[in-house]
Amino acid sequence: MAKVRGTSNAPLVLGIVGGVLGLPAAICSGVCAAAVDMGEDSGLTEFYLYGTAIISIALIVLACFTKKSPMLAGILMLLCTACGVILFAVTMNLLGIIAMVVTLIGGILSLVQKKEAVQ
To answer: What DSSP element (H or E) covers 4?
Structure first.
């Protein structure tokens, strides 16, 4: 059975751009959570900061695999994007939501792109 790989660079580019935009948005989410936390040590700041940063980094890594394994990378990108949308929406972070929309498009394109068989 021949291996399949993606032919389009669009999911790669969109995933990386969305992930890179998500990194400064992660800092903003941490700051917004700190404002809501108001000095209490409930862990909200760290949760939103680290959670959104990990998702953004994961999206960059997954975007690099969209050429080699487009189906798996696309599914994982969509899952990470769903988690990112929830975290960024709670903190009302517009840049983060824009970043997740970009990666959503990249994940969908990774799933529906033309694929070629590799020997």
So the answer is: strand 3-6
